[in-house]
Hints:
This protein has 174 residues and is mainly beta. The chain has one helix and 17 strands.
Amino acid sequence: MKTTALFFFLALFMQVQAQMKPQPPTVFIFVGDSIFPMNAVTSQTELKKGWDIQGINVGRKVRRYFYGDHARQTTGQQPKFAIYPTTQNLNDYALIRLKERRGYRYLPVSEFKECDHTRVELGLFKIENLPGLGFAVTPLTPLFPGEYILVDLSQKTVNQYGDCKAYDFRVEKE
């Protein structure tokens, strides 16, 4: 009886979840003259505990990963994005270059704000107004080939480990 009730509530929860209105996309990428929404990916955190020597922790490390060898979205060395900020400011967004390993990509430093990043602001990006309170942004300096994320630095974490959502893309040689 208890398992039947559990399965009933699980099925009910899944139906309610499926009927919830999805959030509209806020970040898009230009491919030629067309605009396509970017899919947000969530980081995954690994905590290497290290050693505890007389109450002092040595070797503790936190690493944030993004699953997959490469991002599915590829672009040239000067990608153009459309950003429609909702509660954040345009300069809360930043580009971060990821390090690559076989099967995953990861942040050079575990915190987004501590990574070497390029904020979306005048002087570093060409910024144009778009209809509907949006902005078209293009980096003025060509990006090196590799894996990148476009991330909102002001966002709240999605879990207690500090994972966040970001928009990943790959820059290929032109």
